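Anyone opening a protein record will find just a pair of labelled lines. The record below illustrates this layout.
***
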Amino acid sequence: MNTLRTAMLLAAMTALFMGVGFLIGGTGGMMIALVIAAGTNLFSYWNADKMVLSMNRAVEVDERNAPEYYAIVQSLAQQAGLPMPKTYLIDNPQPNAFATGRNPQNAAVAASTGLLQALTHEEVAAVMAHELAHVQHRDTLTMTIVATFAGAISMLGNFAFFLGGNRNNNNSFGFVGVLAAMIVAPFAAMIVQMAVSRTREYEADRRGAEICGHPLWLASALDKIARGAERIPNPDAERNPAMAHLFIINPLSGERMDSLFSTHPSTDNRIAALQAMAREMEGGNAKAAPRQAPAPRQADEQRPSGPWDQAARPEQPAEPAEPKRNPWGRNPTGPKGRWS
């Protein structure tokens, strides 16, 4: 059902693109728009990952300069049955992450240094599992193409302003058609782009929780990332807002509503869905294998903070050796944990 919905949205975007071309230049404009749409799709297919990573100034890392972060992604990729994606770090204090690439064989995941510093090891694992879910569902290509379409339609709307006074064009709708191309079409493109993003995020949350095995890890991570994104600006994302929906949490300012006009669902709604999923998993485990009541917790036993303290924290292994220096000369791997 999700694939069918996305296909319909992409078809609507293509039709909208051609409609804008018709409003601007009649039949000839519609054909030109069709050619541009085909070229946009082709360019996005082969260059989406390079474009997004370059816009965010991401730097590729490996097991030598980011051993624990790389190990997290490697372990989760194996768990999900995916090829190991290229792994990137973004030198940005805002906690956030995204995935890109045209298919699982040519995928990349990226996390900010702020994310690795603000989250626990388990929460980082849950975030990267969410991004790998996007890769597994082939969401990254779809959302990047939609974002490119939205930007191109907005560009056509700007062209309409300059072409509106040209009486030699083939526009049968006159001023009304030009006005629609300038205002209505970009607005409709924005709606389609945001609708694609929101339907994908819920699916990636669920699949990411299945990959890491702990929905509450992701719920806790989403809460921390959302609060961090509210406080810490992301200048690169502000300069390129068409790519904002690729991030796990909207990196732009001013987004609060779970409506058609927000690039992401409400964080509270996503957390509630993950908490419900955790209860379902606990209920299924209880039915499959009833267990004795656990012994009372000791006073000094560590517990996760916040409303997700139902899940016990995994035992922490001994501290590994200091990792080699990364591109910024500091440890980007966050707290130590079981994914080393």
Summary: Confidence is low (pLDDT under 50) at residues 288-340.
